[in-house]
Structure formats: C-alpha cells, structure tokens
Amino acid sequence: MKKILHLEPVLHEKIWGGTELRDQFGYAIPSDHTGECWAISGHPNGDCRVTNPEFGGQTLGQLFRTRRELFGNIPGDVFPLLVKIIDARQDLSIQVHPDDAYAKVHENGSLGKTECWYVLDSKPGTMVIIGHNAGTREEMRQMVAEGKWNQLLRQIPLRKGDFFQINPGCLHALKGGSLILETQQSSDVTYRFYDYDRLENGKKRELHIEKSLDVTTVPFVPDRTVPETETVGDAEITHLVTCPFYSVYRAVLHGNAALSFHAPFVNVSIIGGEGTLDGEPVKKGDHMVLTANYGPCRLEGNMELVYSYI
Ligand code: ZN
Predict the structure, then answer these.
(1) Cβ count within 10 A of residue 60
(2) Fewer CB atoms < 10 Å away: N or C end of the chain?
(3) What's the gap in Å between 15 CA and the centre of ligand 1?
(4) Active-site residues: which are they?
C-alpha cells in the first residue's frame, strides 16, 4: 500500500524556547517560548495526528498499533523514531542519555536514546557542547563537585548545515541561537547534569547527577561520521549517518529526481522551499511518512529535505 501519511506537528513550550518555529516555519506556537516541534512522532508525550481524511483523525501512534502493515509489520510497541525541530533561544541543560541496556534496567524498560542533529540555522557565534575533557570518571566527579563546568565541558562552534551524531553516553547541550532538526530513537529519557541554576515556575528543574556520571562515556570519544554526497537526477543527496537505529539523509533538489525507498517506512521533512512528492504538493514545514516498501518516488521542485528510516 503506497501512501504518504501527512502529519500535524505537536508544539511544546520550554523555558529555553523562542519564536523561530512560528517565524521560520509558520507553526501556530502556544507562546513565545516554544522550544520543540514534534514533527514525526508516535510517542505518547506528543503523538502526531495523521491528517489524511481516510484515517479519521487517528494519530501516528494509533496507526502504528492498529495498521502495522503500513509500517512493514515491524515488531515493537512504539513507532521507533521521533523527528523534532528544536528552537533553542537560550541554552539547554547539559544532558546525557542512557543506552537501551541501561534504560531497560533503570527506566522501566524504556528505550535508550541515540539522536542526531542537522543544523537548520544558527546565530553568529553560536556554540554547542559535545563531550567533555575529563580523563577519568573520578576526575569528572571532582570537577562536577567543584562546579568547574567551563573546564569540564567541550565547547565547539555550531554552523548552519553542520551535522552531529550523539550516541548514548555523550554529554551534550544545544546553546542559545540554534535551530536544529533532530532525528532520534522514540524515547524521552534524559539525564540532566547541570541546568545553570535556572528556575522554572520558581523551582530548579530536577538534576540526575549520579545517573549522568554512571552513563557518561569517559574519556570522550568524538564521532567520526563523515557525510558523503551523490547526485541523483537534479538532487544532491548527502548520506548523513547510519547507526544501529536509523539512517539519515539530506536532499537538495532543483528540478526533479526519482528516488526509490525499500524501508518499512520513511520519515520525510521539508526544511526549505516547495515542490511535489509523487504529485502531492509539499512545502517547508511539512512532515510525512511514506509507508512500507514505498518503492519509486518522484520529487519535483526547488526544495531541501531531510529523510530517515530504520
Ligand atoms: Zn539529547
């Protein structure tokens, strides 16, 4: 069954969020501190409605449970990937995610979290925290106890078009001025290491320092993924990453191109311009899922997209 499932994003307010999701994507944001657009999600904390009339307003999570053939009858309780757009007007907390094995034991059988970032935009001078400078866990514990965060955290510049793979155990934080598209395992397990002593509704947000120290990879090992680009028709396709949980690609199209998909499903996000997918009009800010073994797909227009599959 060859179908394009069109999705309605779910928007989440965050203390560090801004207005870029409205200003750049036209979404109806709930307030001027909106941090996350859950664009392709079957997760209970933000399950996207499928807008194709034939599905009667069901969500992606519901369709995954009741119409598994649309997703190639893959096993599992939840739609396995989650695609977000994140507007960080201010710094996010320093955080780390567990892997599947640790989350299973310590988080009621939840999945761990591997994620990756494609940078949609960044303000001049924006930095990002990826990794740390501690040589041993003991040294890390010491630096945390003494509050030597500047010395501990590894900070690098963030530029439009950059790509980062964040494996479990990698300390990370987006900083103010970044707008990214995140593709991740469908999990919400985050260990917050440090939150700049900020207050939310008069209280500091909960920290998870022991679990963070437990799961952080020491010493830090930089990811060596090198994206590769090929030309297909009038499209330039960049293979951003393949890891055990997903493959992610970026395509820039000026004209038309024929792609072919043989995955249980394909997440597609239009991040710039407009055009058509097999004749259906799509534009910047639209997010879709192509159903199982979709096969050939004709793309036309001037647009930029990010797509992913398991
Ligand atoms: Zn994260």
Answers:
(1) 24
(2) N
(3) 16
(4) 192
